[in-house]
Amino acid sequence: MEKSESANQPGLLPNFCAVGNVFMLAILVELLAVVLALAPGDRNTFWEQLAMTSMFAQWLALLNAALLCIWRQRLNALPVVRGLVLTFILLMFTTLILSYAVIIIGRMVGFYAFAAPDWLQFFYLRNLATGAVVYAVVLRYFYIQHQWQLQIRAQSHAQIQALKARIRPHFLFNSMNTIASLISIDAGKAERAVEDLAELFRASLREKTEHSLEEEFALTRSYLDIEKLRLGERLQVDWQQAADLPLDMEIPGLCLQPLVENAIYHGVEPMAEGGLIGIAAQIEIYRLCLVVTNPTNASGRMKAHKSNHMAQDNIRQRLALMYGADAAFESRQDAGHYSVTIKIPLVTHQP
Predict the structure, then answer these.
(1) Is-contact 280 323, C-beta < 8 A?
(2) Residue 296 covered by a domain
(3) Which end of the chain is more exposed for a tag (fewer CB within 10 A), N or C?
(4) Which residues contact residue 199 at a Cβ distance below 8 angstroms, ignoring those fewer than 6 apart?
């Protein structure tokens, strides 16, 4: 497995450093405190029980969240079973320490000054038993969620590989004919065209599903160089690239090049006079925005070739598999122009 892919594997424990997760934890703990306060069935002591239980449970939850925030990466790096056991031990130890601290502080302020040893023992056992049940249920949930995420990742990877295999290199035969005609005229250009063609097919057959934005740009330029040899002055390219682009960010492989390929095949090539392909790359609201524009015929309509939809559906499905609702794929047709826009989040969602 590629290094970057293994680094993106979902972890067993969620991110307790995130404010949203801590907020949800506080709400769930408060609901649990209400249930525990209702359990005795004495309405005269309900509010007192709720106040004491809620205060202890919230402090315990926040303390555990802080510890898991600190130790999350190390625990997630362990084998699943070992990580579960160590997490359970850590949570139980925190429960014991906080219970002891409550007794010490309570005695200092006079709450437990005359508490019997049997009651203190019951207090410890009750907290540990309740904590063990709750921790076991929560960790079981984390384990099931982790296995589900691994399964989804495996299915997504298989689907992405299948989708990549459907990428149609329709320009292969045209490129080979162009190379053959160049051999006797300009051997240097023919050699560079062969290298560009080999690089494109190497990228389409690569097991790794992602590569850097800079690599995608290089592949697209290699493809344009091949098509430039074939179409000559009929193909004009306007490449607009923002200066602040994170060229090292990971994006789905072959997400820009097929769009440029379609723009040439369905937009420029059918026109005797050729046309201008527009390629724009910029940052818009924490997302990478890539836009490919091509001309259409005089009626303003571009033929809906089956292969065109296949390539677009390919990229749309890959973006959905990798980023979910955080990514976007949009196509638009105006009078004389057809454009496709893809938006990729700058920060990959981590479970």
Answers:
(1) no
(2) yes
(3) N
(4) 218, 219, 222
Q: How confident is the model at residue 340 (pLDDT cuts 50, 70, 90)?
A: very high
**Domain end call among 162, 184, 216:** 162
CB distance 294 to 268 below 8 Å: yes
Q: Enter the pTM of the model.
A: 0.59
User: What is the SS3 assignment for 185?
Assistant: coil
Q: Would you call 249 helix, strand, or coil by DSSP?
A: coil
Give the closest residue to 268 by CA, choosing from 299, 228, 296. 296
SS3 content of the chain, % helix, strand, coil (to 5): 65, 15, 25
Distance CA 253, CA 264 (A): 20
Mark residue 8 as left, alpha or beta (left: phi above 0; alpha: psi -120 to 50; beta: remaining).
alpha
What is the separation of C-alpha 232 from the centre of its chain, rounded to a whole number of angstroms? 40
Q: Kindly state whether residues 179 and 227 are assigned to the same domain.
A: yes
Q: Are residues 137 and 180 in the same domain?
A: no
The 10s digit of each residue's pLDDT in 243-271 is: 999 999 999 888 898 899 889 988 998 89
**Both tokens assigned to 79:** 């084998």
Q: CA torsion sign, 2 to 11 to 147 to 250?
A: negative
Distance CA 320, CA 344 (A): 10
**Residue type present at position 183:** I
